[in-house]
Amino acid sequence: MNPISRSQTTQNRRDFLRKTALCSFASTSSAWSWAHGQSSSGPRRLILISYPNGAVLRKWHLNQSSGGGSFNPTELSFALQPLAEHANLLYPLRHLNTLGHGGSSSHPEAASQILSGGLRNRPSVDVEIATALSSPTPLAIAHLGLFTRYNKGEDHLMFRGTDGRPVLPEDDPVAAARLLFGEATGAGPRHLVSPDSNSRTERQLRILTRLEEAYARALPGPNEFPQVHEKITTHQQSLSTYRRILSERGGSGSCTSPSDLMAMGPDRRANNLVAEHLVRSQWKNIVAAAACDICRVFSFSFMSAQDDSLHINFESLRELLDAADGGGFGSEKKWWNQTQSHSSSHEANEVFAIQTRWYNMMISQLVSLLKSTPDSQSGSPLMDNTLIAVVSENGESAYHGQEDVPWYLLAGSRCGLGPARVLDCGRRGSSDLLLALAQIMGLSWESYGRSNGGLPQLGLFQSSPESG
Q1: Measuring CA to CA, how many Å separate 120 from each of 103, 130, 373?
Q2: CATH T-level topology, domain 41-195+261-458
Q3: What is the pLDDT of residues 350-402, one digit of tens each?
Q4: What angle do CA 289, 297, 238 make, to 5 degrees?
């Protein structure tokens, strides 16, 4: 016998209809938002990017007399100038501290806990957010990188998996594409699995069929319960519309890996020569995966903490490097010493400031690609629903500082952060920013790690700033 039969009481019928309608609304409204590339609460996706060794803060923070508020793109610092064309999406952070929140004079110690809210042997915040979102995407999270395979040890890796152990990102864009788009023949790393691009649609269609069957069983005659009949009929029409959307999407076959990707070879120096192309290829992977809604959370690492493996001596920096050191671009000295990130970070000189500027040059290209790529369903730019957070394990590079760290956010117009501005964090801890990321993504977390209420500057939680 069916659990709901027409011989049951009107109250039972109403209870059933109320519960079923709620389930139907939750399923169809969230799926409608998904189909149109929108999110009912916060941005659709998070991209967390790390770069090593901190920055020269006098070259990083804005040329402002005040600590926070609106800014003019002409006020952007030397390091942030490459982001000028995206200034309307930029939220530089001031007076945010990692002290007491995982920051350390030891690079590996800092790397092991800053992104876990100051706690060791815990998942990093990107993984925690991806897990909590429980999004019905083929992947929960994708970890990509550049030159992370040449790390000084796994304890220098910035991101931690669900077991609290370091995650080695996929550095090779071609291998990453095969895994992201389900073309791999092997099992692949733990953090990237081979998805079935149609599995999500098929799962939603099965749920839709069960809802349609439940409504059909509960539908009374038009003269028996006219109001109930009208409500159920309306819901059935909504389900039919959504079935059409799913069927059209499922048959589109639009989720394919990007073309013209640069592959990594066995020789590190040869890979160094094409590193900018490798980064652009990884951006293509992220943007294509976002357009296909393969996952909602991405992380990307420029090397690992305390890393020297990538020599930042690219043709795009020739003029700046020549000016910084009196010429000699491409000499052995510049190749093997001054352009090593960790080595030059202790000098906190112009060459190191150019390196940190380079990371932002690359990130600017990611934002441009997100802006120019439409969502496959809504047609709006992917960047509209994207939140990007950029972090490092150090603050002031010369002495492994843990105060006023060089972090920032980039947020699309639908992320709900209001006008672009400098966010004066009032000496709050970095764990409060990580908590804020989760809250912006629509999660109702009240704490994360050693956080103390989030960031009031974002209008999320109001509490007293921590002392110290």
Answers
A1: 12, 19, 38
A2: Alkaline Phosphatase, subunit A (3.40.720)
A3: 888 998 999 999 999 999 999 999 877 667 899 999 999 999 998 887 788 88
A4: 75
